[in-house]
Design goal:
Blueprint lengths: L1 E4 L3 E4 L16 E10 L5 E9 L5 E8 L7 H9 L3 E6 L16 H13 L4 E10 L1 H12 L4 E7 L11 E2 L2 E2 L1 H22 L3 H4 L16 H4 L1 H8 L5 H4 L13 E9 L3 H14 L3 H5 L1 E9 L8 E2 L2 E2 L9 H11 L4 H4 L3 E5 L4 E5 L8 E10 L2 E8 L8 E6 L35 E4 L7 E15 L5 E9 L5 E10 L18 E14 L4 E7 L25 E8 L2 E2 L1 E7 L2
Parallel strand pairs: 5-6, 5-7, 7-8, 8-11, 11-12, 12-15, 18-20
Antiparallel strand pairs: 1-2, 2-3, 3-4, 4-6, 9-10, 13-14, 15-16, 17-18, 17-28, 19-26, 20-25, 21-24, 21-26, 21-28, 22-23, 22-25, 26-27
Length: 580
């Protein structure tokens, strides 16, 4: 039963029978809305506090969000009813909080101040955990970077380890669909705030005629998300990005963490890297031991009740569980549940569609196997993948036209629904003359691939700069080619994303393309397929082949691309094979 109470209080009465998976003892919850926390520079951030009725102090859970704290009420109620003091806060410059929003820039200091403030709230026992996903996960990692003394545990979900590589750029290429759609999403609240502040009806109403009343003044589009231009200006890994590079600070962090990632999530690499960085380098042995990793088949989108991600149904076992509650029961209350008794890594093996616990990631029993790209220049589609090293001279060529890029078909996308996210059929790419295909023969037995995937590609181009892209797919006997993972390299950043290095047209270079990670059982009769091209648009921005910076580039030229497949240039897909 929900009822309003005086002075911004909402009281929720929950009976034990209504709780389902909650604790056997359900607390009566009182909610105080619009609670102000002052940051070190005087800016007021607004939060709602969910306080359970309890005789003793309780652990505190803090969520800091740019997406409107009021939308988090249901989850906050459940956690509070389970015996946590829950605080949900609008970050600086969003919704009810003061200040100007600039992604990542204030989250370390504001996170520190908010944690320490939450630890002093009535009913708090001084131990604070943070939770949430995507940018809310970033607020946790950035707060952890600042080392607030009362932050004990975090649960970052589907988030990154840094905000240049893996959030804004990948392999030196701009993640254009994500950065554009996310900035547009963020701009909606900023538009509302700026338009509201600009209202002057007491002045406008004096004008005549009445129909000329201006209604409101709209800010210029560039004022709604000025940081979007910053992201494009700073296309190298410079000081702008290093100021908020979480992965440089693992050694100073001393906390417990549950890292949750999705095989089809846009931030998968960061979720894994955060786990590995803290497991191997956190500031105390206890913290290094108390890292957990959960990897499911998820995309950066809701999973349907039947476990559908993209156009693939993985089954009800793939539906995300409420793991945060169990994690904090262990990390803050000492409950001896699965996080105390099971191995630290839990992965979902696609193709087999089962969960499995592991002692580490990547798996110690991995057999790294090179599948060499082979083919002939006469037949573009005749490329094969095999473990036998190539012999005779061979190459395959195609023309890349930036004005006709290969389209993105599912995969690691965010944030609007105009483009499908998750695993989708890649067969439409196979009819394009600018996509090379390399496939194994139908497999004689099941092959499990779990871990990091990469492509060593020997290639030349007629341009001074270009991109090379790769997509890995599981091809069923029917021909359906299920997306698994992808990667890209911007040639001028082939050696370092800190400084561009132009190409010599026609010269052969070795490119290391990071396809991040996956876990998939290729069934007997299926094929392992690799797609090689120079575009995956709009997931990544088009390389115009001129070597110009992204900002202001308009000129495009076509490029002749050649991939080498011989003994001296053994292009190879590198797969982590797990013995069975």
């Amino acid at each position: 039963m929900l009822r309003l109470a005086p002075r911004g209080l909402i009281v929720l009465l929950l009976g034990a029978a209504a709780q389902g998976s909650l604790a056997e003892e359900a607390y009566r919850v009182k909610v105080e809305t619009g609670v102000i926390a002052r940051m070190r520079d005087g800016v007021a951030l607004t939060a709602d506090v969910y306080r359970p009725a309890s005789e003793g102090p309780l652990p505190t859970l803090l969520k800091r969000t740019p997406y409107d704290r009021r939308d988090e009420a249901a989850a906050a109620y459940e956690l509070a009813a389970a015996g946590y003091l829950v605080v949900v806060q609008d970050v600086r410059g969003r919704y009810a909080s003061e200040g100007e929003f600039d992604p990542f820039r204030h989250e370390a200091e504001d996170g520190y101040d908010s944690v320490e403030w939450a630890a002093t709230l009535p009913a708090s026992d001084g131990r604070v955990g943070m939770f949430g996903g995507s940018y809310v996960g970033a607020t946790q990692m950035l707060a952890a970077m600042a080392k607030p003394p009362h932050l004990v545990a975090i649960a970052p979900t589907l988030t990154a380890s840094e905000y240049f590589d893996g959030w804004t750029y990948q392999g030196g290429a701009l993640m254009q669909w994500f950065t554009s759609s996310w900035a547009s999403l963020l701009a909606i609240d900023t538009l509302d705030r700026k338009a509201t502040r600009a209202l002057r009806p007491q002045e406008w109403v004096r004008g005549a005629p009445a129909e000329a009343y201006p209604l409101l003044e709209l800010p210029r589009a560039a004022e709604l998300a000025p940081y979007y231009r910053d992201w494009i200006v700073h296309e190298t890994d410079d000081d702008y990005w290093r100021a908020v590079k979480v992965s440089d600070h693992y050694g100073q962090m001393t906390l417990k963490a549950l890292h949750t990632g999705g095989w089809h999530d846009i931030f998968l690499k960061g979720s894994i890297r955060n786990y590995l960085g803290l497991r191997d380098g956190a500031g105390s042995p206890e913290s290094r031991r108390d890292q957990r990793l959960l990897l499911g088949p998820w995309a950066h989108a809701p999973t349907s009740p039947e476990g559908k991600v993209g156009d693939v149904v993985f089954g009800r076992q793939a539906v995300p569980e409420d793991g945060e509650r169990a994690w904090f029961d262990y990390a803050l209350k000492g409950v001896q549940n699965e996080y105390a008794t099971q191995p630290p890594v839990r992965i979902f093996v696609m193709g087999e569609n089962v969960w499995r616990y592991e002692n580490e990631f990547p798996l110690a029993r991995t057999r790294t196997t090179r599948y060499f790209l082979q083919g002939s220049p006469e037949s573009r589609a005749a490329g094969s993948l095999g473990v036998v090293r190539p012999g005779r001279s061979s190459a395959a060529s195609f023309e890349y036209d930036p004005e006709d890029p290969a389209p993105t078909l599912g995969g690691r996308l965010c944030c609007e629904d105009f483009l499908p996210r998750g695993p989708y059929d890649q067969r439409p790419l196979e009819s394009r003359p600018d996509v090379l295909l390399f496939s194994t023969a139908p497999l004689e037995r099941d092959v499990e691939v779990t871990g990091f995937v990469s492509l060593d590609l020997f290639a030349s181009t007629s341009a001074v700069d270009t991109d090379f892209t790769a997509i890995l797919a599981d091809v069923e006997p029917s021909g359906y080619a299920r997306y698994l993972t992808d990667g890209i390299v911007r040639a001028r950043y082939r050696n370092s994303t800190r400084a561009p290095e132009p190409l010599v047209p026609g010269q052969v270079y070795k490119y290391a393309i990071d396809l991040w990670a996956t876990s998939n059982l290729f069934r007997a009769g299926h094929r392992i397929r690799l797609y090689v091209s120079s575009s995956n648009f709009p997931r990544f921005d088009r390389n115009r082949n001129t070597g110009e910076p992204i900002l202001g580039a308009t000129r495009s030229i076509k490029a002749r691309q050649t991939v080498y497949l011989d003994r001296d240039h053994p292009s190879a897909l590198v797969l982590p094979i797990i013995p069975r």
